[in-house]
Write a structure and sequence with these properties.
- The chain is α/β, with parallel strands linked by helices.
- Helix content is 45%, strand content 11%.
- The chain has 2 domains: 189 residues, 3-Layer(aba) Sandwich (Rossmann fold), CATH 3.40.50; 163 residues, Glycogen Phosphorylase B (Rossmann fold).
- The protein is built from 16 helices and 12 strands.
- Strands 2-1-3-4-5-6 form a 6-stranded parallel β-sheet, with helices on both faces.
- The N terminus and C terminus are likely disordered.
């Protein structure tokens, strides 16, 4: 429930977060909230280390063609929400087809020109990208003779990592977990280029991880009420039915976050009226980190940002929807580590929560403990410190210089 990256508010597409002292240029895109969430966290971490103005953020796709980008985003959301199987086939085709990357030079000329202008204006020492297509644009700019700077991909997917993330060259890949690192290594990337730092989440998680947590379900005395957070995204097919079932559990404290769906918010307020234990019905909110840290479980789709923030908060997740392709790996990560459950109907959601909270939360406690090794709340700061230590024109300290672009055509096809 975070605001979008807004870097195109003025008529001049380059008149955005202008800084002659930029040290790290962060590139993102609005196709999935995980990319923007990671970019915001990275920018805040870099600025905390290097000062204000040191980490401009840009969505080159939105800047270069605002109307086309907005149309593309709506089409993407419509596809994943209303035609998920069609999206599954599209995602798989893009994963294996060379035609996709070959088309970038023709289809993304405006974006490439704008990216060149950003690089020439800001002259960053390092580029971080949370969206994979930038690596292709930067490679094309390098082949055209534009002076290059170190560039690192911050991978926002887990396990089901699209090949677009690694089929273009860059100086290194920051990945959220060891499971995802294994995928890149199996794809043939050099081990010294793949670094496990965690997913960049908001600094709130790290600042409050020792002081914010839900009541202990196993505490002696009267058992505390389990707290359930339900995050409702666009396209959720059973949102209202799930809400009715959750509200019927009168012994639970329930919080709903419905984003900008005001009609749904009003309906849920009406449903919750008169409930013995009051429920919170929230619209758009910037308090998701606090809510995750203070609730026992979250019911949500397996989006990249939501899944990683739930992990950072050590809040077990009941996954009620999986977008084919990129979100399958997010749930697989939870499944491999024995955390939470997949429950795609209201009845299954309630059953999973009852199982978690039974016997004073015995299963819930096991889930929460299993999340601890995955939670890397300081990931954004760690990545920021590593890239800020990069010498001008070089690679991360302690690592050999990467091969020049095109030096390994088998690994990095054109």
């Amino acid at each position: 429930m975070s605001p979008p990256i807004t870097t195109c508010a003025t008529a001049d597409p380059l008149d955005v977060e202008r800084s002659r002292t930029a040290r790290v240029l962060i590139l993102t895109a609005g196709f999935g909230e995980g990319h923007n969430a990671a970019a915001r966290a990275l920018a805040a971490a870099v600025e905390a280390e290097a000062g204000p103005g040191s980490a401009p953020v840009a969505d080159v796709f939105a800047l270069a063609a605002p109307r086309l980008n907005a149309l593309s985003r709506r089409a993407y959301l419509g596809l994943i929400n209303h035609a998920p199987q069609l999206w599954r086939h599209t995602y798989a085709w893009m994963d294996r087809s060379a035609l996709v990357t070959q088309s970038f030079g023709l289809l993304l000329r405006r974006e490439q020109r704008l990216l060149a202008m950003l690089l020439q204006r800001d002259r960053p020492r390092v580029v971080l990208s949370t969206y994979p297509i930038y690596a292709y644009l930067l490679a094309r700019l390098a082949r055209s003779g534009l002076p290059t700077v170190p560039h690192y991909n911050v991978v926002t997917d887990s396990i089901s990592i699209h090949s677009l993330w690694w089929r273009a060259p860059c100086d290194g890949w920051f990945v959220p977990n060891e499971d995802s690192a294994d995928v890149l290594l199996q794809a043939g990337l050099p081990p010294d280029r793949v670094q496990v730092c965690g997913f960049p989440v908001h600094s709130f998680f790290h600042a409050h991880e020792d002081e914010l947590f839900p009541p202990d379900l196993a505490a002696t005395g009267p058992a505390p009420a389990p707290r359930v957070l339900c995050i409702i995204h666009s396209g959720n097919r059973h949102a209202e039915a799930t809400a009715r079932r959750l509200l019927a559990e009168s012994d639970w404290e329930v919080t709903f976050a419905v984003g900008r769906n005001e009609r749904l918010r009003r309906r849920l307020c009406a449903l919750a009226a008169g409930r013995a234990r009051p429920a919170q019905i929230l619209g758009w909110t910037d308090q998701i980190p606090r809510l995750l840290m203070t609730h026992h479980a979250v019911v949500s789709k397996a989006g990249g940002a939501t899944t990683q923030e739930a992990i950072a908060a050590r809040c077990p997740m009941i996954v009620n929807q999986i977008v084919p392709g990129q979100e399958e790996g997010n749930y697989e990560l939870l499944r491999r580590h024995g955390v939470g459950a997949l429950a795609e109907t209201p009845e299954a959601i309630i059953a999973a929560l009852w199982r978690a909270f039974a016997d004073r939360g015995r299963v819930w406690q096991a889930w929460r403990s299993a999340l601890a090794p995955l939670a890397r709340t300081g990931a954004a700061r760690e990545i920021a410190r590593r890239v800020l230590a990069t010498p001008a024109g070089g690679s991360l300290p302690g690592l050999p210089d990467p091969e020049p672009i095109g030096a390994n055509p088998a690994l990095f096809p054109p």
